[in-house]
Backbone:
């Protein structure tokens, strides 16, 4: 078996909020991505999906202090325990990030050419003309029309879709092995969203780039991500091949989420099955299953005992006491006994 | 679309906009945000106005509410031309036109309680109470949006989730006893599970309270759940309109077809949008003729030369396109 590009093992992250509270956000998160593979992480607000991305990158908001246990392995090297210099090196050359709103990640007063080439290690020795030429080539690779002219311009001259392409060009410039895309198309129109996702797909395939695509929209992952991890209350509650998870969800939350998605092929003016209640308050510890208060299958055990990870099919698991798929059985015989 | 709107709805027309034009003055010259648009909102029905950014959909919402008044064109509410009213008359009519904005948090005063927020229209227009108890009226609206008054009434906006805040905004709109409800991207900032609750609510309230609703969105995925009719907006012009079911089953305009194909949906294979790889043009400098032609796979010389007029393709279904995807049926009008 080859080493995954990213291998997150039993990751627990707690955040010390500015008001002094300690919030345990991520609980025993396990996931991995192989080279050339796209893993989709889907979750609603408060599911912990963005904290996951920030923990992998080791960057949290300036006002919070985060502490993590577990492992975040990039090509086998643990980012959590690496010496600061080594960590910076691994992050700088290994991981690139595409943000939700390119307007906030691009500097408005710096020329596009300089931003796109920022992660190139030899850029300081590069003559201006060569730098413009390199930037134009990078912009051309992400389908920016008239790249030589754009390279000399500034972000505000571009439409949202073009700005996101510039953001992707800057992310790809350093030839990373892992691309983290956190809601990369949420701010874009649907037709533009489509072309930006196609672009990410193309570079993933041609460069063998491992891609972590984080979204609140499970529909967006269909036909794009090979596997899905569904997050709820800071936990990965279900994971498996995309078709398998969307067609035969094992976790009641995944099933409810899929039912509540409005569809162009859905029934006309009919009541959409909404999920009653609200996501868990992360400032309070959860006993048992975090979805239990909103779950129509919950039994008394769900409120007190954390659900075990159960196999729901090949490479398909769900953390639930009462999963929906018939073949569900404990993933490992010990997982049940381990819970108190 | 400049043709007379096709009337298939049996319920009475409440709000009617004719020849609506909105021109914004910008530093780069006049921006024609809305050009010659006709819309009719019917009682107990929802019209979904679909368009991408820069299509003019929010400009239309504001023009209907006269915030500010449109540059040209007429808006009538139950037959009364809003432009003919004095400021005082317009003010007394305002409660009848209510809006649910995109971001509930920014439209709710963070210092007021939920009850205080819902009572805002009652405080501004005390006549709405008609002798009833203020608190009872407020609690009734909160119950109608599924928020238990005893649980939520004394909370403040920061103690609400996004979906709950949006329901407070809906309850506040309802307290004004509106005829017309305009929801401008009212669910696009919400999580999927909260989105379903608010969509259900808007649809149910439109039917139960006899509202004439305009649901503005960029997402064709949500229109099927809420709307009876669709109008598709592209760079300030309507390119297609018709019954929701007919338009989604067989769109006549290549732009509608592309929007539909671009909607990501679980279990639905990715379709080809067929769009040319051009970014949407700027509303400041729209293409000549058909404004979609720079992205349209079917465009020819005629599309650059002539602005397409609306033509019928089915009952209540019209398209403004020189090369529509459905045959034109003059008899259907």
Residues:
């Amino acid at each position: 078996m080859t080493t995954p590009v990213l291998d997150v093992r039993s990751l627990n992250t707690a955040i010390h909020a500015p008001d002094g509270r300690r919030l345990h956000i991520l609980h025993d998160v396990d996931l991995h991505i192989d080279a050339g593979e796209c893993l989709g992480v889907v979750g609603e607000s408060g599911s912990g999906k963005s904290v996951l991305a920030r923990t992998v990158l080791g960057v949290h908001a300036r006002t919070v202090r985060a502490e993590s246990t577990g492992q975040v392995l990039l090509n086998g090297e643990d980012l959590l325990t690496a010496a600061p210099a080594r960590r910076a090196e691994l992050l700088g050359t290994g991981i690139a990030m595409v943000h939700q709103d390119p307007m906030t990640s691009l500097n408005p007063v710096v020329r596009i050419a300089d931003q796109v080439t920022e992660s190139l290690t030899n850029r300081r020795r590069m003559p201006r003309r060569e730098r413009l030429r390199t930037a134009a080539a990078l912009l051309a690779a992400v389908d920016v029309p008239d790249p030589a002219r754009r390279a000399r311009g500034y972000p505000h001259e571009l439409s949202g879709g073009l700005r996101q392409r510039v953001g992707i060009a800057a992310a790809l410039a350093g030839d990373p092995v892992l691309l983290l895309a956190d809601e990369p198309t949420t701010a874009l129109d649907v037709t533009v969203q489509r072309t930006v996702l196609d672009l990410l797909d193309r570079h993933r395939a041609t460069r063998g780039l491992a891609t972590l695509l984080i979204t609140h929209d499970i529909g967006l992952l269909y036909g794009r991500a090979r596997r899905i991890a569904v997050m709820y209350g800071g936990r990965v509650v279900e994971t498996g091949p995309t078709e398998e998870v969307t067609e035969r969800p094992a976790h009641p939350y995944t099933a409810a989420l899929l039912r509540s998605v409005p569809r162009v092929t859905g029934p006309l003016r009919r009541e959409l099955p909404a999920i009653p209640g609200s996501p868990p308050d992360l400032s309070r510890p959860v006993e048992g299953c975090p979805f239990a208060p909103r779950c129509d299958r919950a039994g008394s055990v769900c409120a007190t005992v954390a659900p075990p990870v159960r196999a729901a099919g090949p490479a398909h698991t769900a953390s639930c006491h009462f999963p929906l798929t018939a073949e569900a059985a404990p993933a490992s015989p010990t997982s049940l006994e381990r819970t108190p | 679309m400049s043709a007379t709107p096709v009337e298939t709805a049996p319920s009475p027309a409440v709000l009617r906009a004719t020849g609506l034009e909105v021109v914004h003055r910008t530093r780069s010259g006049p921006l024609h945000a809305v050009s010659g648009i006709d819309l009719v909102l019917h009682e107990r029905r929802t019209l979904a106005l679909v368009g991408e950014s820069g299509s003019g959909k929010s400009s239309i919402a504001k023009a209907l509410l006269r915030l500010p008044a449109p540059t040209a064109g007429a808006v009538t509410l139950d037959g009364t031309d809003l432009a003919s009213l004095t400021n005082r008359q317009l003010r007394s009519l305002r409660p009848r036109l209510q809006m649910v904005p995109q971001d509930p948090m920014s439209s709710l005063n963070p210092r007021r309680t939920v009850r205080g927020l819902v009572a805002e229209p009652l405080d501004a227009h005390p006549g709405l109470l008609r002798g009833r108890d203020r608190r009872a009226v407020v609690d009734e609206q909160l119950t109608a949006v599924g928020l238990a008054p005893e649980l939520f009434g004394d909370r403040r906006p920061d103690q609400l989730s996004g979906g709950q805040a949006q329901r407070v905004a809906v309850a506040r709109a309802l307290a004004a006893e509106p005829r017309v409800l305009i929801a401008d991207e009212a669910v696009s900032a919400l999580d999927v599970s909260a989105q379903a609750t608010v969509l259900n609510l808007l649809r149910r309230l439109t039917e139960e309270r006899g509202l004439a609703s305009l649901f503005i969105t960029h997402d064709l995925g949500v229109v099927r759940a809420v709307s009876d009719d669709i109008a598709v907006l592209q760079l300030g012009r309507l390119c297609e309109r018709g019954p929701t079911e007919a338009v989604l089953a067989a769109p006549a305009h290549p732009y509608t077809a592309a929007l539909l194909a671009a909607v990501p949906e679980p279990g639905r294979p990715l379709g080809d949008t067929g769009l040319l790889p051009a970014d949407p043009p700027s509303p400041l400098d729209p293409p000549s003729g058909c404004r979609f032609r720079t992205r349209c796979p079917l465009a020819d010389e005629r599309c650059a030369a002539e602005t397409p007029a609306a033509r019928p393709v089915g009952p209540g279904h019209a398209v403004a396109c020189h090369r529509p995807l459905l045959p034109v049926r003059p008899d259907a009008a």
Q: What stands out?
A: The first helix of chain A runs from residue 49 to 57.
